Every structure is written in structure tokens, then in C-alpha cells.
Amino acid sequence: MPTEQPTLCANNNGNCCQADSYASPYGLTYVNSTQQLFGGRTYTTFFYQFHSNHFCNTDLDDAKCCTASADNIWVDVDPTLKVKYVSFNGQRLANTEQGEFGLKLGSVNLRVDDAKTSIPVAVTVEGAADALCPPPGLAPIPGLCELVVQGATSANPNACCPTTITVSNLQSNFVPPAGSAFQCAASLENSPFKLEFDGVSAPQTVAGQQYVSYNFRLIATGSCRADGVHDCCHAQLSYLDMKVTDLGITAVQLDGKSVGFSTSSWNEPNTASYRSLVVDNLNLVADDLGAAGLPLTVTVRLSADSNPGKDLCDSSSDLAQGGCAYYLHSEDGFCCPSGLALQSIVVPPAPPGTCAPDTNVPASDASMSLAYYEKTCGSSSTTFNFLLANHNDAACKYGYCADVCSWSLYLDPSVASQVSVGHELAVNNGKQIITPGNVATGTPAALTFTYGPTGASTTNFYVTLPAGAKSLTSLCARNALPGQGNKACAALVRSKNVYVMVFFDETDVFIKPADGSSCTAGSPPPAPACSNPKPLADSCLAVRSARFNTMSTSAVFDFALVPADASATCVPPSPPGRNVDVQIQLSAAAVDQISTRGQVRPKTNLALDRTSGATWTVTSTTAATSLSFEVQGPLGLSDVCRQGVSPDQPANSCVVEVTGDNGCFRGYVAAAADGRLVWISEAEPSSRGVNAAVVVPAVVVPAVVLLLALLALAAWYRRRRSQKYAASVSSGSAGDLNRPLAAGSLRDDLSVPSASPSDVQIRVPGASQGGAAPGGR
């Protein structure tokens, strides 16, 4: 714009405008910027406030600009940036133009009074930008912008053009005004198009050069549902953007015809840049695709030094060959659905009764994320901790913002019956399903958690193997999902409508173990719940003894809760008839086993928590009873009970707390080995823990028991025959057969009591593996 020069502006001929910023009330204040990711591209939005609160010097105002309108605003935007969207006062400003003189905000048509209350202005550009404008010539400071406000007076429609610079007033905890930032609809459900992968051709040699073709198909979705951002169901497809590697792309064909393409890099926020294949000028609507869709072929040239395993698709998208992350952009830029172009994905079905979405999306485009968080090891167990996060809040920036409804970890079928499961909150105990898989056919097993975090939250999940120092390769199934590649584990995270696939191995663990170790130490034991306890021996109701039997593949534990003798001097934990909580501080791994398999008695009034152990609620006048459970593995007391809970806890003991209305009592209980202690399973199926599809070894009876039982039957049969024989011979010759067996004889030792489903143990002669022989009688 021409500034005031005597030869041009003589006689006020309308060729000039007043440019003095001191003779204008208008200004632009910078408040903040944000970055968002849509359609595989980063967009930066700069937020300003346009106002008319500057002091206007009337002594310098020859053109009467202090009361002029503001009709058009020019901002000196960096010419290397591409403006995508402009919002003015919460609405998209259609009359914008980016040219050699910067960005024109046209036809704003404001009066001085209109801008007394600051008007929000937002300018969105493509890419990750630090500043909207180059440093202005009036004040060469990075971050400021030069601007011109063109306005009219009653005498001259072009009288005013004050040139000024922005003022910076950064706002902390800035929240963008509604509708001010650019958004495009990224959900594939709100798209009439999607891309599928058909396969890779065999290498072909032309003129001594090898070429490979990647074959895709652009198809109509057949169903479309607007997502509330923009209705894209009738959008026109302008261009396709695909994440690719640096393989040399030589040609792209759509429906057998060559089409133009380009490759470029776009910098995502907080990540490395990736290479983008853009197939432009498509200008398609859904009806153009036909029933079979349009084939899209990308041909690459293999150089002599190319890695034979290198793929066209960027490995950050998906590890499967041909699994490309793609983005479909509409002509107006407001539709940018994304997806993964994979060969017919076949994933194991979700268990009946759980959510079963059928649309796969890239993990980077969904609000759901799963991480391998930590591995902790004990002498007899290895626990893998997985952290599932959801980012579905009001500021969700992902293309698919949804709540987790379930997720599955795919297991080696040979260990599926051995795993135990832990939940961060005890209320979720039992909310998992284990499908067994098949070792012979290699069908993976699956551990499915039937819940997950919602909104903006995280949840921890724990999976334990009953052996120390195990790795993910011992836990997970190989080749469980398409794209798993050489990763040890595969998982599938589901929302109601979409799912993502996640792959990881030991190198991906979030909390790294110390050098030279494969595991972390885990969290320290929790502080005892009772802050000022009385001695457990003073309680009229207490766990006074414990027994255990450790066998080769399992172990049984029994804690006896016994009231004091009537003549004893003791303190009742609660008045008669009132409740008492008996807490045994079991290890987290033991709690996981018990809550997963349900091999515990009693089942009622028993709370299991990974932090506090087992809490058993009884009445203060309860009769003698016991808490019994079976766990897998040759475990001892130090394996199932937390050690080091308090400084005075003896080694190889359990912390027991009894809490009631009259206070808390704490003590430490050791356990005696008892080879006669054997678990007898209940007849009825358990409603807690492992799905009925899993066969978990619950009855562990040493072979010697069965053998001795057969011998007892043989002895009884022999005696019956002897009695019959004695009736037919003389009394002298049969006398020896009629003598009663001596105490401790074969018949007495082989007596086996009958067991009802509620029995906890049976007594047998001799010691089982790891247990002590029964005492003499």
C-alpha cells in the first residue's frame, strides 16, 4: 500500500491512506499456540485477540482514523507456511486469501465499539511451526507479526491503513475458544472410502533392474455415519496420503492408468519425521469406485544395496508387509479419515459376551494405548505388568476417541493353564476370560480382560507365571496377529467400534531393570493397616497356627482361626455378634493365583486384594475354622506371604491382623509342613476366575495315595475271603485269621476317610514331596 508521499497524496486525491499506527485504535495481541494431528499431518494454530483499545493520538490523525472502521486486515504470514484455516470470533472466516503481501482477512467490517471487547482470531497452518510470521521490519523480534488494518471514514473508504506489530501476552493454562481451531473428521466410520491391501507381486527384472509392485484397492465403505465434527459421507476425495519408507517409487497407477504422485516429509509433534507418498488430484466420489473398487498399484525399484526385508510401508505404521497407514483428504480439507491398509486381517474372535469391533485403525490414531510397564520377579514367580491408558477427554486430539471395553493378550497355549491374573482394583477380580488355544495346531491362547479405562484414565493389569526369571517369550504366542513380526507379544485393544493391535518385547518395557538384571524389585511392601496394634496373643480370636504341604507342582496352605479357651484371659476383638476382620498379608502373586482359580475356602465373606492380601470377615463368636487355599508351583510360606512387612517380622512367617470394634491385634504365624494336607476340589464349578474353557489342575493327589488305596482294597477283599474260609475249617486252624489287627497295622494305616465336597484335606500315610510325615498315633 502506498504511504503518504507529497507527490502522490497532494490535494487528498484518494491515492493515499494514513499509515501512522499512533493514529489508530486497533491492535492484535498474541495469546498462545497449539499443535494438533489430523490426517497424518501436524497443524499449528496461533491464537490472537483483535481489539480497539489502543490510545489513538488525535493530533496525528489528519484522516480521522481514530473513529474509522476495520474492514480488512493483512497479517505478514511467513510465505513458507500454508494457511489452512482462519477463525474470526468463533466462526470460520471464508473471505481469506494468502498471497505475496501476506494473509488477508477480508470483510471483517468492524466499528471501533465492536472491538472494545477483544475478538478471538485463530490462524491454522500446516506443519509444526514455531512462529506465524517472520520478524517484522519495524521491530525485528522473533514471534511478532507486522499487520495492516485497512479502514474507512465517512469521507474516504480507503482513508486508513495503520501499520503496526502484534503484542505478546501469553496466557497460562490457555484453553482455545470453541470452534477456533481447525478440525478435520478423521474417523473411518465417517468416510465413504477406504483402502485395502491386495498383496505384493513377485520381483520382475526390466533392463537389469528389479521392480516390485504393491497392490492396493480403493473401495467404497458401503456404510457411513457422521461423527459430529463434519459430515463426510458425501465428500469428494482429493488426495491420498500414505506413510512409506525411502524405497524408490517409480510409478503409481489407479485403475490401470498412471497418476501423478509426490513424496514429502511431514514432521509430527514430538516424533521423527516420516516420508509421505501423496497421490493427488483424484477428485473421486463414492460412485466412481464401483462395486469392486479401483486398483491402486505402487511400483518400487529395488536397488542393489536394498535390505531384502525392507518394505514399502513405514514400520511405525505397522510391522506387517504392506500394512500402510493412510489418510484420505477431501477437497475442502475438512475430511481426513485414516486407516491401515492390511491384507484381509484375520484376528482371533473376541470371547462371547464381550465387545467385538470389526474396524482396525492405527494405534497412533486412537485414544487407547497399551504399554509393557514392568516385570518383577520372585524366587518362584514372574509378574508382567501392563499399563492400559485412555485419553478420551474433552481435549482428545486423536482421530478415534473412544473408551476401552476389553483387551486381549495372546498367550503360548502351553502356559495358558498356568498363568494367574491380577487386577489393580479388587472389584475387578474375576473379570477375565482365558481361552486355551491348541498346542498341537499352534492356535494361540488368549487372556481377555472384559473391562478397561474410560475417559482420561489408566489401569494396571498383572499376569504371572509360576516360575522365576521368565521372559515374554515364555508367556506370549508368536504369530498371533498380522504384523507381529519378530515381536514377542501381540495384544488387541478394543473399543465399541474400533480396535488397535499392539506389539512389544522385552526391549519395550517402560521401567528398565538395573544393569545385569532381567527384572525390577517391584513395589515395597505396604505399611501395615494397623498403626498401633496389640499383640495377637492377647486376642480372644486369632490365627494361632498354620500348615502347608508343598508338592512338585502345587502347594496347599491352611491357616487355623481358633477362639481362645473359655478360661483364658484375653480381649475380644469385638462385642458378641459383631464382625471381625482377619487379614493375612499374602503376596500379590498368591492373591492373583487364588482370585484367578478360586481354589480357596471359604469363598464367602472373603476379600482378595493384591496390596493387602486376604481379608476374611467373621463374627466375634465364630467357632474354630480355617482359611485354606491351593496354588500352583512348589511354593513355600515365604512365597505366598509378604516378607519384610515390618522390622520385627520373623523370616518365613505370615503377618496376621485381627481388627474389630475393640482395636487391632497383630502377630506373626509360622507354618508346619504336613504331608497329609491335600486339596479336594469342590463339585460345583466356580463362578470366580478362569473361564470354564480352561482345564486348571485342581486335584493334586500323589501317586502313592492311589497305590495305597488300592492296597487297602486288596487287604479288605483278602480278609473277607479269609472270614468265609474260617467258617468251613476247624476253629483251631482258623484262630489266627480271626484275631483283630494290632494298632498301627496295615488295616489301620490304610483307612481313608470319605470326603465330602466341603472337606479341605484328607489324611494319608507317609509324606508327600516337600511335606513332613504324619506324627505317630
TrEMBL record:
Residues 747-777 are annotated as: Disordered. Keywords: Membrane, Transmembrane, Transmembrane helix. InterPro entries: Pherophorin. Residues 768-777 have a biased composition (Gly residues). The keyword Membrane applies. The keyword DNA-binding does not apply. The lineage of its organism: Eukaryota, Viridiplantae, Chlorophyta, core chlorophytes, Chlorophyceae. The chain crosses the membrane at residues 694-717. Residues 15-162, 182-337 form the Pherophorin domain. This is Pherophorin domain-containing protein.
